[in-house]
Amino acid sequence: MKTPCPSTRKTNPSVRSRATSNSRTRTRLVPILEQVEARLVLTGGTVSLVGGTIWINPDTTAPVNTSVVTSQNNVVDVSLNGTDYTFSSSTVYSLIFDGSKTMSGTRQVFRNDTSVPSFAMGGAGQNQFTAGHGFDTFVGGAGQNQFTARDGFVFFFGSALGTNDFQQGSGVGIIVTFGKNNRVAPGTGTYYVYAF
Q: Cβ distance 56 to 67 under 8 Å?
């Protein structure tokens, strides 16, 4: 029969006084170890809806982060690293992909396949941004930045600390470049390029 630990015994002064008055009564404590099952902490970034804006925060230490946004049947679906997050289209007004805190040597892929306006920021690694069919603003990071426009309006802002590769599409846009590490490939739309 196991003797309970003193901390789990019921407080009864009379029993306690009898046990201490009898010199032959001894309580033997036997430690019991319980096995704790392993816990796996999953990473992969977060996706949340705040005030009509879907915030996509990639895993800052993952070697690759891939986020694709699609929309059909009045549902906006955000896939981040293989996990899908769905939102009613009536509650979504914009998208923000914040890859600015990602580390060097990582790769960020953000593709907007909707007409929902988006804003994306790159980090120190490789940043690959593909615009949607609405209004998209992409800001490159200190790494290698690849911007691809489609049929919407885009504002591409290259980083002087990185290399910037701009692919024009069939829409309209403004491309701002800094430094000498820039390449702009023409498309069929109308784009205004400002080099500094």
A: yes
| Residue position matching structure tokens 């490939």 | 185
Q: What is the pTM of this model?
A: 0.76
What amino acid occupies position 96?
I
Task: Please calculate the CA angle 144-161-137 and round it to the nearest 5 degrees.
Answer: 65
Identify the CA nearest to 121 among candidates 102, 134, 135, 106: 102
Question: Coil, strand or helix: which one is 93?
Answer: coil
Helices (H), the chain: 13-21
**Per-residue tokens: 97:** 């992909």
Distance of CA 125 to the CA centre of its chain: 15
Q: How far apart are CA 196 and CA 194, in angstroms?
A: 7
- Mean pLDDT of the chain, nearest integer: 84
% the chain with pLDDT above 90: 64
109 CB-side CA count, 13 A:
12
